């Protein structure tokens, strides 16, 4: 994809079922020159800065917000003409709709190199390994999905969010079509893109439905989108912009504050409740070696929510932990299960769990938190347990997403990085290609966890033994998959082909 420059402006009128918008080209102050990415953006990338460095930047962004919202509204409408059609593409993970979908869904997930990161030399083993892990994990995952009604609610909730977002945009005089593109299940991103092309969308805002950026979520979806864009003539010429993360937006923080306050009020003594933020984990190496900004963004997000609660005179104690780890490597700590046990031992009596990485109910809220962690908490001595619902279609949240889209419109097709407003915008912006370019330039290949060999029962020995074992498993699985014979077939793990 090339850098897409703004179209030459012209005064025009756009008619839709929502409203009629008058457009004044003179308001277009977008500077299209390409320099570097906005500081907010590269700042978020490093994932290694201290909190004290980050706070002032966020605060200044928040202060700027009112000015920006009114100004960007003028700019957004000014760059549209009557043949412009705005689309918003919501990116999400996707989930199996039936129990039969579970294994193929898991295959898609584990076949993603942003989820299972093999050294370059072993990339050809990605699919056999994904087949092996998905088959091995499917029974456990199926149990979870069976417990929440036989499938993931993600598609239904995301469709509802898309419809509410469309309505909110409409009410704010921005007629737009809103599409859902899932990474690992239907409707796949490719399906959404086909529809976008059929509908003749000319300006696209890409909005991952993850508040915080991670290589494994928004990063993976954007990488896929980039490859789709690169190969398609229509898409190469379609102007677009990306909102890579939006956890710092005032509306989102307020919406989270509302949900938490509501649940706190249900306790007999709300002031004594420990607020327990439970974020989805990622392997530690993503953050420490590959520069995933996820942990830094998560910590800032929690700080902002707590500031909001303090403003409401709810200065409760709080903690942040990471859940849902998969596989043998170390993930972000502290782990949710261990923290719950520790809090019980420390005499905490009331706990309010807040899922924080995701804006819909899903298997990890409905099963892992509501069933497994609740049971663990009660066993560990915690007497009162509550859980904040996921945002879903909460009106303040949806309205804020609509504002994020509107604020991003002036930058569709124009990075505007030298523009002061864009630099300090609450919504860090860029095109898919540019965002990934920065991401890749700062991301190093994951190094081997241990580089120097040590003799004895050491970490390096464990690592290399583990790798040798993994390689052996991969080779065996590869032979099984290609020949259709072997121990996995004999044990019934892989179906025998007839
Ligand atoms: C193995 C690596 C995984 C990483 C890294 C990871 C990151 C990550 N995931 C979410 C959000 C969700 N993940 C969901 C399901 C899910 N995720 C993994 C693995 C990794 N996730 C697996 C194996 C599964 C399947 C379920 C299971 O077997 O446990 C879902 C649920 C979708 C649903 O159907 O309801 C969500 C949501 C985030 C936010 C994240 C990193 C920040
Ligand atoms: Fe996950």
Protein described:
By secondary structure, this protein is an alpha/beta fold. Helices cover 48% and strands 11% of the residues. The chain has 18 helices and 10 strands. The protein has helices at 39-46, 51-78, 102-110, 126-147, 154-171, 189-198, 215-230, 233-236, 250-264, 284-288, 294-311, 336-345, 363-379, 395-408, 420-424, 432-442, 459-483, 487-490; strands at residues 12-15, 20-23, 86-92, 176-182, 203-208, 239-242, 274-280, 318-323, 350-355, 384-387. The strands form 3 sheets. A 4-stranded parallel beta sheet has the order 4-3-5-6, with helices on both faces. A 4-stranded parallel beta sheet has the order 8-7-9-10, with helices on both faces. Strands 1-2 form a two-stranded antiparallel sheet. Strand 1 and strand 2 (20-23) form a beta hairpin. Helix 2 (51-78) packs across helix 14 (395-408), helix 3 (102-110) crosses helix 4 and helix 9 (250-264) packs antiparallel against helix 14 (395-408). The longest helix is centred in the first third of the chain and has 28 residues, at 51-78. The two termini are 46 Å apart. Bound molecules: the ligand C=CC1=C(C)c2cc3[nH]c(cc4nc(cc5[nH]c(cc1n2)c(C)c5CCC(=O)O)C(CCC(=O)O)=C4C)c(C)c3C=C and fe (ii) ion. The ligand C=CC1=C(C)c2cc3[nH]c(cc4nc(cc5[nH]c(cc1n2)c(C)c5CCC(=O)O)C(CCC(=O)O)=C4C)c(C)c3C=C binds at residues 93, 95, 106, 109, 115, 137, 141, 152, 154, 210, 214, 216-217, 280, 282, 294, 326-327, 357-358, 362-364. It is an enzyme of class 4 (lyase). Keywords: Chloroplast, Heme biosynthesis, Iron, Lyase, Plastid, Porphyrin biosynthesis.
């Amino acid at each position: 994809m090339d850098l897409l420059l703004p179209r030459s402006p012209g005064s025009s009128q756009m008619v839709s079922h929502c409203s009629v918008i008058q457009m004044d080209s003179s308001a277009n102050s977008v500077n299209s020159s390409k320099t570097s990415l906005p500081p907010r953006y590269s700042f978020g990338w490093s994932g290694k800065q201290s909190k004290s460095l980050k706070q002032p930047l966020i605060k200044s962004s928040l202060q700027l917000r009112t000015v920006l919202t009114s100004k960007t509204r003028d700019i957004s409408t000014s760059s549209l003409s009557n043949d412009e059609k705005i689309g918003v593409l919501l990116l999400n993970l996707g989930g199996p709709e039936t129990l039969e979908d579970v294994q193929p869904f898991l295959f898609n997930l584990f076949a993603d190199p942003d989820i299972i990161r093999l050294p370059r030399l072993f990339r050809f083993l990605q699919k056999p390994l994904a087949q092996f892990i998905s088959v091995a994990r499917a029974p456990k995952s199926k149990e979870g999905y069976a417990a929440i009604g036989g499938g993931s609610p993600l598609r239904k909730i995301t469709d509802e969010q898309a419809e509410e977002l469309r309505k909110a945009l409409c009410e704010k005089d921005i007629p737009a079509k809103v599409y859902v593109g899932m990474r690992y299940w239907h409707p796949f991103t490719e399906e959404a893109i086909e529809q976008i092309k059929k509908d003749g969308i000319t300006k696209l805002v890409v909005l991952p439905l993850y508040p915080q950026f991670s290589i494994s979520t928004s990063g993976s979806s954007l990488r896929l989108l980039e490859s789709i864009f690169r190969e398609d003539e229509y898409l190469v010429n379609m102007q677009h912009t990306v909102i890579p993360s939006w956890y710092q937006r005032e509306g989102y923080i307020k919406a989270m504050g509302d949900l938490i306050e509501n649940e706190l009020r249900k306790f007999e003594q709300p002031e004594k409740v420990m607020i327990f933020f439970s974020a989805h984990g990622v392997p530690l190496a993503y953050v420490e070696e590959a520069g995933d900004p996820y942990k830094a963004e998560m910590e800032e997000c929690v700080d902002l929510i707590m500031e909001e609660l303090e403003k409401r005179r709810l200065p409760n104690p709080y903690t942040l932990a990471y859940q849902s780890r998969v596989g043998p490597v170390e993930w972000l700590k502290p782990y949710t299960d261990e923290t719950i046990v520790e809090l019980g031992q420390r005499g905490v009596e009331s706990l309010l769990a807040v899922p924080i990485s995701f804006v819909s109910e899903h298997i990890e809220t409905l099963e892992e938190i509501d069933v497994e962690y609740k049971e663990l908490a009660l066993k560990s001595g915690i007497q009162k347990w509550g859980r904040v619902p996921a945002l879903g279609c909460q009106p303040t949240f949806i309205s804020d997403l609509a504002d994020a889209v509107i604020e991003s419109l002036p930058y569709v097709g124009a990075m505007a990085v030298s523009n002061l407003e864009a630099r300090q915008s609450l919504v860090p912006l860029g095109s898919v290609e540019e965002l990934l370019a920065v991401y890749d330039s700062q991301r190093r290949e994951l190094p081997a966890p241990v580089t120097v060999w040590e003799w004895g029962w050491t970490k390096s020995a464990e690592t290399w033994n583990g790798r040798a074992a993994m390689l052996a498993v991969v080779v065996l699985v590869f032979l099984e998959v290609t020949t259709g014979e072997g121990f996995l077939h004999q044990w019934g793990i892989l179906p025998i082909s007839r």
